[in-house]
Design brief:
heterodimer; A: mainly alpha; 16 helices; 1% strand; globular; B: alpha+beta; elongated
Chain lengths: 307, 198
Amino acid sequence: MTTLAFISTADPLARPGSIFSAENRLHLSVVLTLLLLLLYSHPYWYVNLPLSILAIASLIFPVLSTSRVTWAAVTAIIVLGSLENWYALDNHKYLLGYWCLALLCFFASKCDPTRLATTARALIVLVFGFAVLQKTLSGDFLDSSFIHYELLLDERFHGLARYLGGVPDHLVELNVSARAALVSFDSDLEAVALRSMRMLEPVARAITWGTYGIELLIALAFLSPRSGLLGKNRDVLLLSFLLTTYLLAPVIGFGWVLAIMGIAQTADDRVRTRGAYVAAFLLLQSYRVPWGEAWSAIARMTQGGGA
Amino acid sequence: MHWIAPLVLCAIGLNQLVLVHASALSRWKGGGFGMFATVDSPGARFLRIYLVTESGRIPTTIPTSLRDASRELRTLPTAEHATELARKLAAGTWVYVRMQSPVAYYTEIAGLPRRASRARTELTDEGGSSTDEIDFRRLGFVRMLESGESVGPGDERVDFSAVQVEVLGYRFDRASTTLVARPLIDARAPLEQTEAMQ
């Protein structure tokens, strides 16, 4: 209590009424979830339209945002909409469904915030646990084949391949054309050779082990008690993941649902941590800027100006 | 109650792992959080579709109306899904592809006299192609008519006896930096008598 009192007077973020205060943690999680439902809920119109209407109504009439009926409807719409298209949905659409189910269970039961925090923690552990398990079992991740392939062919990695791996633009075009030739409807090719650069190997290895390492650490950190070394740093790890991973692969909806669950599991006195999660929530929006194109344009302008 | 959501995640995730091993479900899909874990995404799987004719196989693309079925097949390539897709393709009406300018299309369906194109006509040859109508018949480009489309006066149907659907996937060989295709499923559906009589 003494600590809380000290924080509430010394830190404006912790003052009663602040959106980051412990008393508003649930409100913050719910409002951000409603924004997520409004902007990144589902690719199918018959799912995202009713979800958008429910989200807007709940933002206008806050009483709806804490109603079990609202969250039951949201969960039911997501589940029914996902059943038909389960094979096409990205994993974060499933995660959004689990989080809405967690909110439904919370509002339908005793509304104990510590229980919602436990649920959020468990979901984070499971998401990263499954991600690590899949990478371990896949057979082409740990030897860095997958990241090497992504650097050669995924448009989102071309900037890295170009600047760190020394892959020139004409090789990128050649590789993309080779893949297109292999999968073309009239192709009888059985294999196509891609062009790589020797410098790309260590880059692929570093990204592979960096990704695997941080995902494993996040799973362990959220599994560990908060008092331990890993547990103390769990939020730093998750925030680092959010700020780095989605810079390369800007799946904003995934980043947002992880940030929301991050907020929901924070301890009462972690006001600045909640502030950091909200900052990450906002910053992820800037990742939608096509930075590769922007840098290329700046480079062209600079070269043009120099000439 | 607060364990319900994590338990559902576990159940779906474990089911996904079983499907990955038993039915070649792509790790990227199905709620197992296997995105960015392997090259073997649905995008690394592809279809080769052929109309089987007396003079050989004509390769073709998936019609727009069957793209969802194609995506499902690439994500979970089972013999049942492949055969079902082949049946749907065999039940369709296939014509040789023609490209027409809006003027040529309008005059054809309205039954108006054909107007000479004002564009340059160097493309015109013995096959009858011009810049307002390019005939791909000799190149063997075919397409399935979509729902609501009928065979036009200038269309020529494709005579075929069966449709073959091959599902392939590629892996990345890091040592040789090569994409190597491998067959996953091969299905064939004969043209049904009722369809052939249409």
